[in-house]
Specification:
294 residues; alpha/beta; TIM Barrel; 11 helices; 15% strand; binds iron/sulfur cluster
Length: 294
C-alpha cells in the first residue's frame, strides 16, 4: 500500500504505524526490504503518538506498510483517534485483506465514524491479475470479501486503482465490478505510478505513460459518474489529461516530492497543476506540454 498521504495541506497528519506489509505489490513505490523488515511499532508507542498529536490538525492519514498488521489494536487506534481527535476526519489506507475475516470486518463497522474513510486498492477485475500484481495468492478474494464485510460501516469507502501497463486494459472491467458488485463505494481514485521502489524495479512491465493511462481510465470514469460515484485522478500532470477532466486531477503529490520541468515555467496552468513525482521527473518519463494562455 502506498504510504504517501495524497494530500498536501500543512494540517494533515500522517500516522505511519509500520513499514511492514503483508503484500508485495509489483508497483509499490516502497522498496521490498522496507515491507519485509519486522519494524512494527509497539501499540503503546503509537498510542503515545496519538496522545501527543498537535491540536490544530485538520485531517489524519493512518498508513503503513499495512496498518491492519496491528491486529485488534487497529480498533484500539480507531477508538483512540475518535476520542482524542473527535472532529478530525481520518483516512485509513489498507489493502483490506484483513476485513475478509467476518469478526475483523464487524469490528471495523462498530468503530467507524461518518467522518472516516477507508481506502482500499483493487488491481484487477479477476483474481489471476490482481493476485499477480499484489504478489499474494488469494488476495483478490480477500479484498473483495473484506469490502463486502465493511459495507455496513459508517465510513466512506474509497477504491484506489493504480494504473499500469499490466491492468490498463482491465480498468473498465474493474469499474464494472465496483459498480455492479461492491456496495456503498463512494469514491474511486485513479492513481498514476510513482516510479520508486518496486515500481522502478519493474518499470518495463509497468510504465504506461500518463496520456495512455488517461485514455485507459476514461471509459471507467464515465461509468462511475453514471453510477453517481465521485472520481479523482491522482498524480497526473494536467497536460496529460483531456481538458474536460481537469477538475478531477488533484494536486495530490506531497509538497516535498513534487517537481516541475523547466518548461513548466511557461505553462499557463502551472499554479493549478499537480506536477510529477520527483522520481518520475528525474527519470524523464514524460515530455511536458506547456499549456498556452487560458
Ligand atoms: S506543462 Fe508542466 S505545469 Fe503545465 S500542465 Fe504540464 S506538467 Fe503541468
Amino acid at each position: 500500500m502506498e504510504t504517501d498521504n495524497w494530500r498536501t495541506n500543512i494540517n494533515d497528519y500522517t500516522l505511519v504505524v509500520t513499514s511492514a506489509c503483508n503484500s508485495n505489490c509489483i508497483m509499490c513505490p516502497s522498496p521490498e526490504y522496507a515491507r519485509r523488515k519486522n519494524d512494527a511499532r509497539s501499540y503503546s508507542e503509537i498510542e503515545e503518538e496519538v496522545l501527543n498529536m498537535p491540536d490544530n490538525i485538520k485531517h489524519i492519514t493512518v498508513t503503513g506498510g499495512e496498518p491492519t498488521l496491528l491486529g485488534k489494536n487497529f480498533f484500539s487506534l480507531m477508538a483512540s483517534l475518535s476520542e482524542r481527535q473527535r472532529l478530525v476526519p481520518v483516512l485509513y489506507l489498507t489493502n483490506g485483506r484483513a476485513f475478509a475475516s467476518y469478526e475483523y470486518g464487524r469490528l471495523f463497522v462498530a468503530n467507524s465514524r461518518e467522518s472516516d474513510t477507508v481506502a482500499i486498492p483493487i488491481h484487477a477485475s479477476n483474481s489471476a491479475l490482481h493476485d499477480r500484481i499484489a504478489q499474494v495468492e488469494g488476495s483478490f478474494a480477500q479484498t473483495v470479501k473484506g469490502l463486502k464485510n465493511i459495507a455496513l460501516s459508517k465510513a466512506c469507502i474509497e477504491i484506489r486503482i493504480v494504473v499500469s501497463k499490466l491492468n490498463a486494459y482491465d480498468v473498465k472491467q474493474i469499474v464494472q465490478l465496483i459498480v455492479g458488485d461492491l456496495p456503498r463505494v463512494t469514491v474511486v481514485n485513479f492513481i498514476a505510478l510513482e516510479m520508486t521502489g518496486n515500481a522502478a524495479k519493474n518499470k518495463d512491465d509497468l510504465w504506461i505513460g500518463y496520456e495512455k493511462a488517461f485514455v485507459a481510465v476514461k471509459p471507467g470514469i464515465e461509468l462511475l459518474l453514471k453510477g453517481k460515484i465521485e472520481v479523482n485522478l491522482y498524480n497526473w500532470p494536467l497536460c496529460a489529461v483531456e481538458r474536460g477532466y481537469w477538475g478531477m486531477a488533484k494536486q495530490s503529490i506531497s509538497s516535498y516530492k513534487v517537481r516541475f520541468a523547466q518548461e513548466c515555467e511557461f505553462c499557463s496552468v502551472r499554479e493549478i497543476c499537480g506536477g510529477e513525482f520527483a522520481s518520475n521527473r528525474f527519470g524523464n518519463y514524460f515530455a511536458v506540454k506547456p499549456v498556452g494562455g487560458m
